[in-house]
Design a protein that fits this description.
With 218 residues, this protein is of the alpha+beta class. Helices cover 50% and strands 6% of the residues. The structure holds glutathione sulfonic acid.
């Protein structure tokens, strides 16, 4: 299998964490696609993923699977024993809902802030920016942090009592938040404590050690 990614990217981090959680690191080869050079918007990459985003998983038969959630579901069920995406209909539903919520209210909002209200990937890649929209997304993400803080006040993990894909999505959100210097508000103590715990998980801590980054994006 191949993973097209950008080693330090928050979305690629989600798949790297899932790979480590499933102990599948040795089965993949990483291919770096340079976001700052806009390689993800070029025709040969768009043929792999119409949306022009990373990461993308390429199976040995040439099938391409994009979207972190879809890739994680694929990896999680490869061995027939799902541990990240739920083993019962109830857990699957809750994990899917909370992961989607983490995208909508946190990670995607921070990404939109980055692309619209900061220099983002630079003028050659950011061909349309709307700073006001970007600032609204930043504020949405801050509200999202308060929401996840409230969730984590009542349970140990984002979707209940076990680590799951939903935690990975929030981790991706906080990785992006750190990159754009949007700290978790001091009053969000439960979210901060959960984040400190997550940073100690080997899959999170060692996510960059899976391949030598050929580039050093910030
Ligand atoms: N919904 C997609 C997913 O879940 O995979 C979003 C993927 C995404 O936005 N990836 C970022 C990207 O390709 C990678 S990174 O910002 O985390 O490094 N961004 C480039 C762009 O131009 O949007």
């Amino acid at each position: 299998m191949k993973i097209y990614d950008w080693p330090t990217g928050p979305y690629p981090a989600r798949v790297r964490i899932a790979l480590a959680e499933k102990n599948l690191q040795s089965r993949v080869q990483f291919v770096t696609v340079n976001l700052r050079k806009g390689e993800h918007k070029m025709a040969d990459f768009l043929a792999k993923n119409y949306s022009g985003t990373l990461p993308v998983l390429e199976l040995d038969d040439g099938t391409f699977i994009a979207e972190c959630t879809a890739i994680t579901e694929y990896l999680d069920t490869l061995d027939g024993a799902a541990t990240l995406t739920g083993g019962t209909p109830r857990d699957k539903g809750l994990i899917h809902m909370m992961s989607k919520r983490a995208e909508l209210e946190l990670l995607d909002a921070i990404s939109l802030y980055f692309h619209h209200a900061t220099p983002g990937l630079g003028p050659d890649v950011e061909i349309y920016q709307n700073a006001e929209w970007g600032i609204r997304q930043r504020d949405k993400a801050l509200k999202g942090m308060h929401y996840f803080d409230a969730v984590l006040k009542r349970q140990r993990f984002v979707a209940g009592d076990a680590f799951s894909m939903a935690d990975i999505t929030v981790i991706g959100g906080l990785i992006f938040a750190a990159l754009v210097k949007l700290p978790v508000p001091a009053e969000c103590e439960a979210l901060q404590a959960w984040d400190a715990r997550m940073q100690q998980r080997p899959s999170v801590k060692n996510r960059l050690a899976m391949s030598a980054p050929t580039d050093a994006p910030d």
